[in-house]
Design a protein that fits this description.
The longest helix is centred in the first third of the chain and has 25 residues, at about 95-115. This protein has a seven-stranded mixed β-sheet, with helices on both faces. With about 850 residues, the chain is α/β, with parallel strands linked by helices. It comes from Chryseobacterium lathyri.
Length: about 850
């Protein structure tokens, strides 16, 4: 039987013991053996803290976000084999989708967040700068850096893939290396996904390690700077948290534990309403998805006392219709528990619940293509606690399977009180169309819940469901649920980051944070900042504009154009008792006038105004006042773009408007999209002619088989095709891939060196030479390049077919020629 290997200190290592046998939850057959005996855990942790930390923490947040995306894409291409393994854990296809592709989706989400919102630096400036001296020469701010240690992540058996990836999404993005310790049960699936993550070659050395089996004494070696993330029972979690190595070394500890989550049916949701039907469907789904083995599953069903019978009957019918059996069968809607050991544990908890509450539903389902003897199958079980304020067993005992308890309430006060008797939950849901009931109940139960999910007819079509934690929202809960917090968008990274206050002068803070601070030195140059590409802009680049004297006509005209006739701008007789001496210029006029002063009218790399932040007006501006603007590059944000967008970044500019007395009247931050410098040559004929001056018959080739003249004539043929001379009669790219290929023209990735033309047979030679020599070919090529430029000026809407990219317009032909010319000029070392 295959023994699962562990991945530590950069090697795949097999345990030296007998290990733990792992079984197919459906058939009972052995699948693999997990074994960690003989592993040097102390060495593994040290390897993560040194090699892993050095490699990960030196990357920028932006680059780590790109890393997550590449890993997720690599895994997505191999998902079929993960599903085949997931079925062996008892999971249906729908269960597996949540686990497998839900895990990949978390990586994609965090990659997107990083590329939109995080800096292209290894540190992250957190919050605004604080002015802590009268004259602004002493400032303070905070930066976040990766905590210097390794993160040990102990996961539960119910989600072998998502459980690993949701923790790694934040730790890897934060720059902290991790050791993944999955539950042995289902670890063969975790192992397969992990193998591919390493095989992808995307992750830096030491970033991840895998311990596939019992944890041994790994936690004995944790130290200050390390962290432990635990998902499992509260009993085990508390035991780990109190270990001397953890408690004594200030090791960060995050726990997600038991949770007796509830769902409340509103007083208004009577049979026949959409909410009643939604409630039955939601409870059934949460009882049967993953066979109830979810930390977010509904364990307590809180229902108006007069609707208990209706809910019991409707839910029983819904459960009767749920087909249980082999997950590979299309009929199956609920699979098995993860194994016999978990089955026995659920039975033990069910018997405890029976001691105080009535079992009102225990349908003995006929299994689809499976049997109870071999697999770990269990029918859904529904209890009734008729006195939920007296009988506490339902609020204390969690059976981690398809088990839930009905309980009645009288009013919103009681509903919230019952919800809180779970002593801390990951999620509580309210299904109602009565906003007053929803609001009152939510406020009262919020203190004991990590998430409140409200469902009704208005959001049902797009709702993700009671049991679905989302990467952008916090997953965790107080009290019994462990008090932990995972994901929650960028907040999820804070657990792994050290927050440090930075104090100093404006120039010092600018040097440390790479963000311009008011009062720091400005850098002036003859080149207008808006004429610089994203790579050329430096924090501190500044422009001092000419002055503009505001007139009464400006104020009147702006009132008329904007329709802003606020009395302070238009009625001098109404200013008594105000802060104004006479009619004042509109604040938005000042901002607009400032823009008119600092923008460059000439076309340049600045693509568009992207936004406005923190605009404040400090002093009134009257007719006769003269304003001057200081524009300073405050911060650069790298930006991932896709589709047919120009590769660009965001530059934040500090706008300071002063009057003739050098008093600041307005401060704002504007955001612009700034194009990145293209790595491809432009199509100006003189530029291309200069490059071709270095090409001779003896110029050596760096790759491929072309002669210099063949290369020039090949490029010339491409120009003629873009003019429709001849018109390409066919595109060889399948239509379903065409949009993706056309989008690729807009990015800055170069053409691959080994790309074979799909329209040429393998043994087909290049076009026959038509010019008498290289010089004649060069001149003809340049002449046709000039024809191309003139043709598309005169015919800007013309389109012609390309063999690979389909029908292209002027912009696309220009992009492809830029890439194509650069590709072949590099082939001969000309650029």
């Amino acid at each position: 039987m295959e023994k699962l290997k562990n991945y530590i200190y950069g090697e795949w290592v097999e345990g030296t013991g007998n290990g733990v046998p792992l079984y197919n939850a459906v058939t009972g057959e052995q699948v693999a053996v997990s074994d960690t005996e003989g592993l040097n855990f102390e060495q593994a942790l040290d390897y993560g803290r040194t090699v892993g930390y050095k490699n990960l923490s030196s990357m920028t947040f932006y680059d780590r976000g790109e890393m997550l995306k590449k890993v997720a894409l690599y895994l997505l291409e191999r998902k079929k084999k993960y599903y085949e393994l997931s079925y062996k854990t008892g999971a249906t296809h729908a269960d597996s989708w949540v686990d497998i592709e839900g895990g990949f989706g978390t990586f994609f989400t965090y990659s997107g967040l990083a590329k939109r919102m995080l800096p292209n630096t290894p540190f992250w400036v957190d919050g605004e700068t604080q002015k802590i001296s009268a004259n602004g020469t002493f400032l303070g701010t905070h930066i976040l850096t990766p905590s210097e240690g390794v993160s040990i992540q102990i996961n539960a058996y119910n989600f072998p893939v998502w459980g690993m990836l949701e923790k790694l999404s934040t730790s890897l993005l934060a720059g902290v290396p991790s050791i993944v310790k999955p539950s042995p049960y289902g670890s063969y699936l975790t192992n397969a996904v992990f193998q591919d993550m390493i095989e992808s070659g995307v992750l830096p050395e030491g970033a991840l390690q895998l311990v596939c089996g019992e944890p041994g004494n790994i936690l004995d070696y944790v130290q200050d700077g390390d962290s432990v993330l635990f998902t499992g029972s509260a009993h085990t979690g508390r035991k780990l948290k109190s270990m001397p190595s953890i408690a004594g070394n200030a090791v960060r500890f995050n726990m997600e534990a038991d949770s007796l989550n509830c769902s409340i049916l509103g007083l208004d949701a009577k049979p026949g309403t959409p909410e009643f039907d939604l409630f039955i469907k939601e409870v059934r789904n949460e009882m049967t998805t993953k066979a109830g083995q979810k930390c977010t599953a509904i364990r307590r069903i809180i229902v108006p006392e007069h609707l208990i019978g209706d809910v019991q009957n409707a839910l029983s019918k819904a459960l009767d219709q749920t087909k249980i059996g082999n997950p590979l069968s299309r009929e199956t809607r609920m699979g098995s528990l993860v194994g016999k050991q978990q089955y026995d544990e659920v039975v033990r908890k069910v018997n405890i619940l029976k001691s105080e509450t009535e079992l009102v539903y225990d349908g003995r389902h006929e299994l689809v293509d499976a049997n109870y003897d071999n697999g770990a199958f269990m029918s859904p079980k529904l209890f009734l606690n008729d006195k939920p304020f007296e009988k506490n067993i339902s609020h204390d005992v969690e059976a981690f399977g398809p088990v839930s308890t009905l309980m009645p309430y009288k009013d919103a006060e009681e509903a919230a009180a019952l919800a809180k008797r779970g002593k801390g939950s990951l999620v509580g849901s309210i299904i109602s169309h009565d906003e007053t009931f929803i609001a009152e109940t939510s406020w009262k139960m919020a203190s004991q819940h990590g998430r409140i999910f409200v469902l009704n007819r208005d959001n049902a079509k797009e709702s993700t469901g009671h049991g679905s934690p989302l990467p952008t929202l916090m997953h965790g809960g107080p009290g019994r649920a462990g008090g932990g917090e995972e994901m929650g968008g960028l907040n999820g990274l804070h657990f792994f980051l050290q927050k440090t206050a930075i104090q100093g002068s404006p120039d010092v803070l600018k040097a440390i944070t790479k963000v311009y601070q008011q009062g720091a030195e400005k850098k002036f140059s003859d080149k207008h900042p808006f004429q610089k590409y994203f790579e050329e802009v430096e924090v501190g680049d500044s422009l001092e504009t000419a002055g503009r004297t505001v007139t009464d006509a400006d104020i009147v005209n702006f009132s008329n154009v904007s329709w802003d006739h606020f009395y302070a701008h238009t009625d001098a007789t109404s200013l008594t008792g105000t802060i104004f001496d006479k009619t004042v210029a509109h604040g938005y006029f000042i901002l607009s006038a400032a823009a008119g002063l600092f923008v460059s009218g000439k076309k340049g790399p600045v693509i568009a105004n992207y936004g406005l932040e923190n605009c404040s007006f400090f002093k009134p501006v009257y007719a006769g006042d003269t304003i001057t603007v200081y524009l300073t590059a405050k911060e650069k944000i790298n930006r991932g773009v896709k589709g047919r967008n120009i590769p660009s970044g965001v530059v934040k500019w500090l706008v300071e408007v002063v009057n003739q007395r050098d008093e600041i009247v307005c401060v704002a931050t504007i955001l612009t999209l700034v194009a990145k410098q293209s790595p491809f040559i432009d199509l100006h004929v003189k530029n291309v002619q200069k490059i071709l001056g270095g090409l001779t018959e003896t110029t050596p080739i760096n790759w491929g088989k072309m002669s210099p003249q063949q290369m020039i004539e090949h490029l010339e043929h491409g120009i003629l095709v873009s003019l429709g001379e001849p018109e390409a009669d066919k595109c060889f790219t399948p239509e379903e891939q065409l949009e993706k290929w056309q989008d690729s023209l807009y990015n800055h990735r170069k053409m691959p060196k080994d790309f074979p033309a799909p329209f040429l047979a393998e043994d087909e030679t290049l076009l026959e030479l038509k010019h008498k020599n290289l010089d004649a070919a060069k001149q003809s090529f340049l002449d046709n390049l000039q024809r191309f430029i003139v043709y598309y000026r005169e015919n800007p809407h013309a389109e012609h077919m390309n063999y690979v990219f389909g029908k292209l317009n002027k912009e696309m032909w220009e992009l492809i020629h830029k890439k194509h010319f650069t590709h072949h000029f590099e082939q001969f070392g000309l650029v």
